[in-house]
Design a protein that fits this description.
Layout (H helix, E strand, L loop, with lengths): L7 E3 L6 E3 H4 L7 H8 L6 H24 L28 H22 L8 E6 L2 E6 L4 H11 L2 H5 L3 E10 L6 E11 L16 H9 L5 H20 L8 E9 L13 E3 L10 E9 L3 E9 L10 H4 L1 H5 L26 E3 L15
Antiparallel strand pairs: 1-2, 3-4, 5-6, 5-7, 6-10, 7-11, 8-11, 9-10
Subcellular location: Chromosome; Nucleus
Protein name: HORMA domain-containing protein
Keywords: Chromosome, Meiosis, Nucleus
Length: 370
């Protein structure tokens, strides 16, 4: 039923009917207003008139607000029902080396999308929602061309994880036009087996001996424990991002990678360009750890550094208590923890790092079309 004239409305508590057009010539009510009115107990034409004034004013206001929006709202695709189980996203068994590698690689992909969505680097249309362990998590939308390119870049890192080439993957947020004016970093550091050692890159600033000891000390227990650490890490990351200030309008982002000593000198995954720089953060930038997740053959640590933490928010146990639930409290003894080596520069590679194109507007390269 559209907005009509000569509408007969029955009032619930009245013994009479009102011919609306006769009492209020020229005035009409929409279907929504009539439905709303039928749910109210009115017993006089005066009440009905006041109700009409209120409802039509609200309807005009709603129409005005809708017309002010330059872009219609985009409903995000949801896969809540079909992909709610862990096995729909991650391997059901992470004991084997292959499945362990798949697990950490998919965590990188999912969490990267989560960061780019929650920090507003890419718009709503680039993501869909997937439910994993009862958490609704944004992931890349495969129907979007930009998202597909980002998926391909991250997929190219799968072999780097399998071959133990990838040491660190970072989502680096910087202020345009200078890609080295780094304002925020989300870092994924990998460790391969007990025999591996962690090289602390002296040119990043995000790493520390404490963080490295945490990673070296973490051990794989079982799938149930890893699931819980996954949930903890995502929740803490989400709470962290909610306590970060809104990024400036001229902020952009890129993916950056560093390698282990196992990587061939000429190795570079598809979608990344050779670079003689990784990233560097200011010494005063706030840093924290949000999780360590273990497969049977891989360990991955999620770190963040930002200059946008709101005053007074950092230092809350919401962020800093994570270590207690994953590994024993770190010790700062002078004796070195197994698997950690002293800070060292990467040598022997012509270009020791890799970097992707920017997300929004390319400064070094031609912008990728949306």
């Amino acid at each position: 039923m559209d907005a009509v004239q000569n509408t007969v409305i029955f009032l619930p508590n009245a013994a009479f009917k009102v011919d609306f057009q006769e009492k209020f010539p020229g005035k009409t009510l929409s279907k929504a207003a009539i439905k709303k009115h039928s749910q109210n107990e009115c017993c006089s034409s005066l009440v009905l008139l006041e109700f009409w004034k209120t409802m039509t004013a609200l309807e005009r206001l709603t129409a005005d607000i809708s017309s002010m929006s330059p872009h219609p709202a985009i409903k995000r695709t949801s896969t809540v029902n079909s992909n709610s189980k862990w096995e729909s996203t991650f391997p059901a068994d992470i004991q084997t080396e292959k499945n362990s590698a798949t697990f950490v690689h998919r965590f990188i992909s999912i969490t990267s999308a989560f960061i780019l969505d929650k920090r507003g680097i890419l718009g709503e249309k680039h993501f869909k929602t997937r439910t994993i362990e009862k958490l609704q998590i944004p992931v890349f939308e495969k129907e979007n061309s930009v998202s597909v390119r980002l998926i391909k870049k991250i997929d190219a890192l799968k072999q780097a994880v399998v071959n133990k080439y990838l040491r660190e993957f970072a989502v680096v947020l910087y202020q345009k036009p200078d890609e080295e004016d780094v304002k925020e970093v989300f870092s994924f550091r990998l460790m391969y087996g007990e025999e591996d050692q962690i090289s602390i890159s002296v040119d990043t600033g995000i790493n520390s001996d404490v963080f490295s000891q945490n990673l070296a000390s973490a051990t794989f227990s079982d799938l149930g424990t890893t699931k819980q650490y996954f949930v903890d890490a995502i929740r803490k990351l989400h709470r962290c991002i909610k306590h970060l200030e809104t990024l400036p309008a001229d902020t952009d982002a890129s993916f950056r990678i560093s390698f282990t000593e196992h990587a061939p000198k000429d190795y570079m995954p598809e979608g990344f360009d050779e670079s003689d720089k990784f990233y560097e953060i200011a010494p005063e930038m706030t840093r924290d750890q949000f999780g360590i997740l273990c497969g049977n053959h891989h360990k991955l640590q999620l770190l963040a550094a930002s200059q946008f933490w709101k005053p007074g928010d950092f230092g809350n146990t919401t962020f800093n208590s994570l270590n207690q639930s994953i590994v024993d409290a770190p010790t700062l003894k002078t004796k070195q923890t197994k698997g950690v080596e002293k800070k060292s520069e990467r040598v022997g590679r012509r270009f020791p790092y890799g970097q992707s194109a920017t997300m929004n507007k390319g400064n070094r390269k031609t912008p990728e079309p949306d």
